[in-house]
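Input set for joint prediction.
Command: fold jointly, output C-alpha cells.
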Amino acid sequence: MSKVHNFSAGPGILPLEVLKESSEACINFDNMNLSLLEISHRSKNYVAVMDEARALVKELFEVGDEYEVLFLGGGASMQFAMVPYNLLTDKGYAAYLNTGVWASKAIKESKIIGNTKVIASSEDKNFSYIPKGYEIPNDADYFHITSNNTIYGTQLKSFPKCEVPLVCDMSSDLFSRKVNAKDFTLIYAGAQKNIGPAGSTMVMVKKDALGKTGRKMLSMLDYQVHIKGESMYNTPPVFPVYVTMLTLRWLKKNGGIAWIERLNQEKADLLYNEIDRNSLFYGTTAKEDRSNMNVCFLPTKTELEAEFDKLWKSANIDGIRGHRDVGGYRASIYNAMPIESVKVLVDVMKDFESKFV
Amino acid sequence: MSKVHNFSAGPGILPLEVLKESSEACINFDNMNLSLLEISHRSKNYVAVMDEARALVKELFEVGDEYEVLFLGGGASMQFAMVPYNLLTDKGYAAYLNTGVWASKAIKESKIIGNTKVIASSEDKNFSYIPKGYEIPNDADYFHITSNNTIYGTQLKSFPKCEVPLVCDMSSDLFSRKVNAKDFTLIYAGAQKNIGPAGSTMVMVKKDALGKTGRKMLSMLDYQVHIKGESMYNTPPVFPVYVTMLTLRWLKKNGGIAWIERLNQEKADLLYNEIDRNSLFYGTTAKEDRSNMNVCFLPTKTELEAEFDKLWKSANIDGIRGHRDVGGYRASIYNAMPIESVKVLVDVMKDFESKFV
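C-alpha cells >
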C-alpha cells in the first residue's frame, strides 16, 4: 500500500509524522489514557496545546506581545465578516484588493457591514495576475489583501507598504515563506491549506487596532472577547488546533521558515521549469505572479487530456484537477509536500511528452 | 493500561469503537490511502460522510424534509447569536427561559440583536430548579429554552407547548431521550457533550421559519446560505463532523433513542439512588428536575472531601469535580458512558461511607 501523492488544493497534505501522532491522540492523548476527543479543553494537558500553538505562531512570525494569536472555528469565511466587524468604523471605509473569488467574498461581507472600496482588481483577466501600481488611500480604516490565490495560482511576491492597517488573508500560503509580520495589523488563515486540518482558523492581530468601531458587538464575533478568553472563550475546535500545533512544531523542528521557503522554491522551480519546457503544457498566470503553493497549467492539446489523466493516475497522483474557474490542472505543493512527489509529477509530464510528441 | 472512567462534563466520553475508527481515519480514510485530515471536503468520500451525518439526525429525530440539518463551526455560543440574527424581527421580540449560565449567555446575545424578554428564571436559587407555571407569550418571534443545564444538573422533563416557534439548545442532552422534534422550530447542540468531539455544532431548523427578518445578513451567520450550500458553504470542520457521524451511526446500530433512553435512565437511577441513600452525600437540585446527563452532588461532611477524592482517583475515575458555580461533584453520564463505570463510582461512594461513618 503505497502513499498517494496528494496534490489537493485544500484541505491539503500534512506531514506523515503529524498524521501518526494525531492518530495516536485519538486513542491515548499525552499518556492520559484518554482520547483527545473526549477530554476537557480546560484540562492542563490541553491548555498546554493551545498555549504552544499560539506561541509557535508568534515565534514563527517573530512578533512580540503587541500581537495576540487566536484559533477560531468557522473558517476564513468567518473572518471575511469579523475583519470589518472589528475594524470598520461607521464613518470610515475599508479598502480591498480584488485578486479572486475569495477576495471577492471578503469584499461582499465588508459591504454588508459598511463602506467598502475596491482599490484594484484583476478580474478583467480572470484573476490571472496580481494588480500593481495602484495607490492605497491613506484614510481607509484598513487595506485588505489576499496573499495567495489558490484557484488561479497567483501570489503576491511582495507586500505593499501602506500607512493604514494592513490586513491579509494568508489561508493558502501561511508560513510558506518569510514575511515581515510586523508590517501587518491582522493576518488570518484557515488552517487546512498549509498548517493543519479543516476546522480551525488562525488569527493574529495587533491589540491596539481593536475596540475602535463603537459597534455593540456579538461576543463570538469580537476579537477582544476571544483574546480575553485566551482563545478559549468557548470550547475551541480541540482536535483541529492540536493537529495544527503538531504541524507548526514539525515546521520549527525541521528548520522553520528559512528551511521551508528554500524547499518550497525548489519544488516550485522544478514544476514551473517543466511546464515552460514541455510542449504539451503552458502556465496560466503572469510569470512574475506565479504562486509557489498552487501551480496551475493547461494542456496545449486538449484532445490528449484523457491520456495525461491515465498517466498521472497510474503514478498514484491525486488531487491535480484544476478548479472549474480555470480548468486544466492545479498541483498544490504546500509545505508538507515532499519534493519526491513533485519529481513523480514532473516525470509523468516528461513521459507524456515523450509518448505523444 | 486500563481505561479511565471518564465523567468529564464536556468535551465528554465517546464510544471506544468510534475512537478507534477515528484514529484509523487519521492515517487511511475509507481505503483512500489518504488521511481524512488532508483530503478535499468536496471529495465524494467526504460528501458521503456529511450526507450521512445530516440524514442520521433527521432519522433519529423522525422528521421530514420540512427540516434541514447543518453542521457548523463556532460552537453553541455562535448559535446564541445566529438564532436571534435569523429569527428576531425589528419590531418583534424574543422570549427566553433562563435556566443557567448558558441560557444567560444566549439572552445576552439576543439583546444585542433586538428586543428580548426573559419569561421566567431560576436564578433566585442558583438555577437549582427548572421554572414552571410561567406563561409563554403568543406574540413573541420565538421562545428559547435550554433542555439540560450541565453546570447545575437540571433538565426539562417535558417541553412547553407553545404557539410561537420553539427553539432549544440541546447541547448537553441531544439524543439522550425521546423528544417530539416536530414541536420545535430549531434545535441546536454543540457536538462535544453527547454526539461527538469539539469543533462542530448541529443545527436542525424548519425551513419555513427562515428569511423573515428583512435583515441584510452576513453570509456565515445566515442559515439559508448554509442550507443552500448543503452544510458546505465553506470548508466544514471535516474531522469533527466525521467523528459525530460515527457516533450517530453507533447510536442507531445499538438500538437508537429507545435503547439509549432506557440505558441513560438506568445509569441515572443507579447514581441518584446512591446519592439519596448515602449519608455522606446529597443532591443539589430539585428532585423532579434532576438531569439524567449531569449528576451533581455535594458531600455532607466537607472535611472528608479529600478522603473521597483519594478513593475515586485510585479507582481510575476522572472528571467528576463540580463546576465552580456549584462545587462538590458532578458525574456526567452521557450516552457513551457504560453502566459499568457508573457502578464503579457507586461502589466508591459506598466504600467511602463504610470507611467514614
